[in-house]
Each structure stands twice: as C-alpha cells, then as structure tokens.
Amino acid sequence: MRLNWKRGGIIGGVTALVVAGIALAVLGAGGIVAWEYSNSNAFCANVCHSVHPEETRWHGMSSHARVNCVECHMGRLSTLHLMALKPTHAKELWGMIVGYERPLASSTLRPARDNCESCHWPSVEHHDSIALIKRYGTDEKSSETTYRLTLHTAMGVVREKQAKGIHWHIENEVLFSSPDVQRRTIPWVQVRDKDGKTTTYVDAAAKYSEEDLKKNPPRRMECFDCHNQVGHPFRNPADLVDNAIATGRIDRALPNAKARAVALIEKTAKLTGPHGEFGAQIDKLIAEAAPKGEAKPEMQALEKKFAATMKQILVDSSFSAQGLSWASFPNHAGHKDTAGCFRCHDGKHLNDKGEAIRLQCTLCHDLPQVMRENGKGSVPSTVAAGLEPPPSHEEPNFMHDHRTKLDKTCTMCHGPINWGSDGGSFCSNPACHGRSWPEVNLDPKAKG
Q1: CA–CA dist 220, 116 (Å, integer)
Q2: Domain assignments of the chain as residue spans, ordered by start
Q3: In this model, does residue 330 exceed pLDDT 90?
Q4: Four-residue CA torsion sign, 274, 277, 283, 285
Q5: Calpha distance 245→256 (Å, rounded)
Q6: Do residues 300 and 251 touch, judged by C-beta distance below 8 A?
Q7: CA dist 376 to 112, 117, 133, 296, Å?
Q8: Which CATH class is domain 2-118?
Q9: Which of 270, 273, 267, 261 is nearest to 237 (CA)?
Q10: Which of 4-13, 104-113, 282-291, 398-407 has the highest mean pLDDT?
Q11: Which of 29, 166, 364, 447 is the most exposed place for a label (fewest CB within 10 A)?
Q12: What is the mean pLDDT of residues 203-209?
C-alpha cells in the first residue's frame, strides 16, 4: 500500500508539473500574440485611437508602408524598454473612449536615433541625386514642363569652403523653438559648432521674447522636423494629377485634361460627410463635368480612364473631418506649398551681428533646369562644372539681393541678363520666378 501511495504521489506530481508547464506555455504564447497585436497597425489605428481614417490609407501608399506605427512612435528599442513605454500611450486609449479632437501633429515620435537611424545611418556618405519633376499646364494640350534638380544631401561630406547640403542639419547640432504644434513657424534657432561655440538667430519680425522661449523650450532638430510626412504623406491632389498624366493614367489626348482635373479638385474640396459617401458624390461631379454629346469610341475609352483615375485621386484626397484637407498638414521637406526650408532660411533670422541664416537655394540643390516640350522658354544649366562662384554668392541674403549687384561679369557664366518669369534665359527661370513661394518673395517685378 505504501509503495502504491508513493507511486501515485509521484504520478500526481508529474501530472501537475506537466499541466503547469502547458498552462505557462499557453499563457506565454498568448502573451506573445497579445504583445504582437498591441504593436500592430490595426491595434494602433483602430483600437488604441483612430487618429484620422485617411492616415492609415496614405501610410499604405507611402515609402514607409512596411514600417509599423510603433517603430516610429515608440522606437526600435528593446522589448523591456517598449514594455515600459507602452503605458505612457494609455491616454490615447482613453481619448478613444471619451472622444478627442483629431490631432494635427504627433506628440509621441521618438528621437531619430531610436527609429530613423536604425535604417538611415547618419554618418554614411551620400552622393548627389537627380530629381525630375513633371508639371502640366492648364492649357488645352496640358503642356508638359520638366524641372531637373540636382539635390545635395551631403552627409559625411564637406562640399565646399562652407558646408552645404540638406543633411548638414543632422551632422551639426541645431536647436530651435516653435510656438506652433505643427512647427510651421520657427522664430528662434541656435547652431552649436564642434568646438561648442553657439550662434543664435532670431526672426527679426517675430518679436520672440525670453518669456516665449521659456514657454517653448528649445529642442534639437530631428530628421522628422523636415521629413514630417514620410509615414503618411497628405499630398497636393494637383501633384497627384501631374503624376497620373506623366504615367499615362490620364491621357493628354483629352483636351484640357489638366484644367478639368483642377476644376474637379476645387469642387470636391467642398464635400463634407462620412468618408464612405464621397465615392457617390465624386461620381456625380465627374459625370456632370464630362463633355456632352457623342464622342468617338477611342475618346470614350480615354474618358473612362480619366474618370476612374480622378475618382481614385479625389477619394484619396478627401477628409471625413469637416474643415480638414491635405493643406491642413504641412510638408516641411521642401518649400512648395508650405514654408518648409523658408521657416528658417528666409533672410529674416538674424544673429547679434546682424547676419542672417543664409537664404541661398544652392545650399541644398543646384539651380533648376527647365525643359519645355516645345523648347520655347527652356532654361538649361548655364553654369559650367568646376566654376568657383565669386564671394558675393556666399553672402547670407544673396538670393534676395543679387539683382541689385548685377554687372557685366555675370554674363560670363549666366548669359544675357533678361529679367522675367517666362523662361528662355537664366534670369527669367520660371522654376524660381514663375510662381509665388511661401514666406519668400522671388517676384522679379517686385521692389525690394
């Protein structure tokens, strides 16, 4: 009897251990599954908080579509570190329950070294790259213009006597202060060189006080302070139309294709209501704007293609929240639709010596070449490779003041001096003077 009791006790103990092991394994597997789900885009955008419904759609179309929300907003850190950070996001879940105003900017992005730099190593040398941008006119033929830019990235490289290039801002320590949650305005900037010397620049027109600086403490410039739309870019629908024409999804054989597209964009900007209802409203607008009368079979096919492409563009560009549009979210990587680079490089940010942060286009890219399909008004690169610019070109406000410093020597590099904005010569480059820019006046006819 005693032996049987011992044997039974051993079997019972082993059974208990096995059951406990299985239970722990199940709990562990369940915990891993729950942890992985809590880090998924589906959880972040639908359970934790819905942010903007449009945000997940544009993320899926971005260059970072395979990067999960948590990789930017919590960082690529150790699991234990992420577990410690996770509770700090509980406020988002509470907002989902009781309701909250849809945000216009993120307050949870980790420093670039915790996310961006795990893929984009800052000390690697980057070479110049070429950008070809195609734009189409609103004339009957939707005339094509190609802008060619040589972009200077300059990471790990000192290009000239003064360091240049887009990524200079990451190689060097740049602090800034902004009273705006979207950082559309930057009235205070401080640069710290490798010897620890600091130079402070303040927007002379902003009247930014020490009290303002205390309310908005300086922060170090990060990758996403310029590349703020890499995760979910809300793009100008007119640019999407240009891309559609360039790739053949809208055919220029249709008369006034670009003009018709722009007119539809303006009409759909006024749409309101649930996002799911936009499709039917857009179908109606496209049908109303279609040419009347019987069309040839080949034109009917092009019209169907135009309608399908425009519907996709217009639906993607629509916002369910009233009062919001793509323009509610600035793109700081450039200076086309919002100030971007001109937030600091506007010629108005002065140090205590009265020197400005350089307003100089060629810091980040070469002067743009313009190629028009009929050749008329094209502007080739008029500066031969290897030419050393004179000292005047390095002055902080040269781009603003250069027309007041013209002499005959300018023609040696740039050809005849013919001011304007219609192209054909260096000084009438439409890429520079053919449009208005946020914060900076490059109108050749304007005074001062």
Answers
A1: 15
A2: 2-118, 237-328, 375-448
A3: yes
A4: negative
A5: 12
A6: no
A7: 45, 45, 18, 32
A8: mainly alpha
A9: 261
A10: 282-291
A11: 447
A12: 89
